[in-house]
Amino acid sequence: AVRRYREQTARAFAMHKTVFVSHFLQRQFQRAVPHADLARCRVIPNFVDYPRLAATVDGALAPVAGRVVLVGRVDAGKGFGEFLAAAAGRLPELAQVLVAGDGPQRALLEGRHAGPGVRFLGWQDYPGALSLAASAHVCVVPSVCEEACSTTVLEALALGRPCIALARGGTPELAAYQQYPGQLQLAWSMPDLVARVRRQLATAPARPSRAAAFGADAAHIL
Question: Could you tell me the pTM of the whole model?
Fold first, then answer.
């Protein structure tokens, strides 16, 4: 049954145009179906609405020193619990961690970690989430799962914010969309990620000039 499924999948990919959102995802598919003909397949990353993000930047106040922003679904794969546990007592006093999102782990993590330095804001609509990210000293994407192409990382980069993430899945490929050197920092472990957050908070919040274009803008890609 598995062999038949893989053969049918290989034929389907040979017949139809298919998009992988990262080279990582394409490699994972090729591991499972090594004989697939991918001549009609392309790698096109997730894209963002850069004019909307740029307008958010233009309307935002200066980034808040010490503000660490995490946005996403609060579940096991996103690594929020691992980050908060690793960061406990290891961030500077000025640090204010804001977790924007809801999910099955929210109540548990809020009970363990909420306090003066960690706030759970619950679900935010898209404009609210963007405004939070734009106000960050640093955005953190601590996903322990292998994200194929993290839109949260792309949005942080488009907003001009420093972003620190684990070097897993397709995330390392997104360094191609940095607006300035070192904007996307890739950590090899959660302790390394927390150490990078500490170092970033020891510098003044970045306030780069807004770029005229962004490589992962939908209009540019399409």
Answer: 0.92
